[in-house]
Amino acid sequence: MLSDKTIYIRDLTNCPPSYLNDPGRRDFFEIVWLRNEKALHEPQHDFQTLRGDWIYLIPPYRVHQLNKAGKKGVLISFKQELLEDDLKEFLLDVFRIFNVQGEFSCLQVNQESEKTLRSIYDLMQEEYDQQQANLTMIRALLKVFLLKLIQLKEHHFTLQDINEKRIYEFMMLLEGNFSDKRKAQFYAEKMGLSTKRLNQILKEKLDKTAVQLIHDRIILEAKRQIIHSKHTLKEIAYDLQFKDPSYFSRFFKLHTQQTPNEFQDKVNQHIIAYKNTLYAQE
Question: Which of helix, strand or coil describes residue 130?
Fold first, then answer.
């Protein structure tokens, strides 16, 4: 269903099960906008437990199964290629609000912002539903929608300098190579930088070194496979290029303070309790 699409828009009450099970879904950024609902996760602040509008931003490769049964809201899924003609600075902002180095991001939408977002969404959906939809118009409206979300996040991530472009380039390289290229030198050479300079840039902007970010990405992929694949932990270890499953277990525990088995057990308990896999680790 998704193989020939770059964007997919649906009301949550009309989202077919085939979408959730489509293997192509892992390549899409997902915006799940719950309207007048309680949050699907446990908010960090007590005042956020009230019913309201919540926007979940789920990056590619983290295929979460939301318990949308009876939930009111909308879904916007899109591939990165839909935005690739835009400035790298804008794309970095998109990466940041989707928390591509984490599991998901969540925004609580106030009444004023809800009106603005709804007007943009209604225009986008209206065009999307046309028999001959204008992809250029949909793309423009999606960008406006994303810019509004960036504004809502209340952070100004970009400084319009060359190092922002380098971070974007590193993140693109990371997505394509993290499983078998685990040394900072590989990424630095691809970018025409020294390893020292690459780490300086990453520390300044993201407060992490290249190796830390590589390890974070490996852990995220391990979590994704533990939650969503039918592979054994041994098979996951080999798939992630660990020659020894016991080393994979030690690596996982070093970075998460729990073994893969313990993580798997906690996720299964969470699924039973909450009927979704929107499970994030601090």
Answer: coil
Give me the amino acid identity at 56: Y
* Residue 160, pLDDT score: 47
**Average pLDDT across the chain, whole number:** 83
Any residues with CB less than 8 A from the CB of 212 and at least 6 apart, and which? none
Can you give the C-alpha Rg of the chain in angstroms? Answer: 19
Listed residue (110, 102, 97, 112) closest to 155, CA to CA? 97
Q: Is the pLDDT of residue 46 over 50?
A: no
pLDDT tens track for 244-265 = 999 999 999 999 999 999 998 8
Q: Where are the alpha helices (DSSP H) in the chain?
A: 17-20, 88-97, 111-128, 135-152, 162-177, 184-191, 195-206, 210-228, 233-239, 245-256, 260-274
Question: C-alpha dihedral over 228, 234, 240, 241, to 10 degrees?
Answer: -170
Identify the weakest region by mean pLDDT among 154-168, 184-198, 230-244: 154-168
CB 55 within 8 A of CB 109: yes
Which amino acid is located at 122 in the chain? D
Question: Could you give all domains of the chain from N- to C-terminal order, each with its CATH number?
Answer: 7-152 (2.60.120), 159-282 (1.10.10.60)
